[in-house]
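WARN no homologs supplied; continuing
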Amino acid sequence: MHASGKTSWCFWVASAMLLLIAPGSAGAQLRAASSEQSAPNAGRDHLLLLYNTHTAERIEIIYRHDDQYIPGALAKLDYFLRDHRTGDVRHFDPRLYDILSDLTSSIGHPGGEIDIVCGYRTPSTNESLRAHTTGVAKNSLHIQAEAIDLRMPSIDTLKLRKAALALQRGGVGYYPHSDFIHVDVGRVRQWCFDCPAALTVGD
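OK structure emitted
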C-alpha cells in the first residue's frame, strides 16, 4: 500500500472509532428513538364507566393515559355530566375523574360502573333545588363543576363512603336516605345528612 492509501485508511479507522465513542453517536440516537417509540406502550390507561340516572345515558371512556389527560375525552365527560335540566355544560376539574377511578379500585371493582346522581348544576338549578329539597348547599361545588354525587350498583353506599373518606382527596358527603355519596375536590372534610350520630365521624 502506498503512502497516500495508508493515510486514507488510517483516517477512516480513526473516524469510525470516534463514531463509536461519541456521546451523540448514531447508535445512541437509535436507542433513544427506540425507547421513545416503546414508551407509550408501557403506559397505563385510566377508564371510567358511568351511567347518568337522569338521562339514561351511559359512557365508557379512557380519559387519561399515564399522567396525560385526553382533551377529547374530557369534553365528552363534560357533556355527559351537564345540567340535565338546562343542557348547560361546564368544564369539570379532571381530578374528580381520578377520584372516581381510584374509588372503584379501592373497593375492589376497578373500572366498575358508577351511577351519576348529579354532576354540574347551574346557579339557577341549584337555587331551585334549595327551594324544593333539603341538603343543598347555597355555594355548592356542583356549580363550579368540582363535585359529583354518585352510587355504584350492588355496592353498599356506606362502604363506598368509607372508601371515599380513606382517599383523603376532598369533601365526602353521605346521604343515606337518598342512597348516594358526594365527592368533590375542595378541602378535605366530611358530613352526613340526616344521619345517626355515629355516622357523622365516618364510622
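Confidence is low (pLDDT under 50) at residues 3-41.
OK
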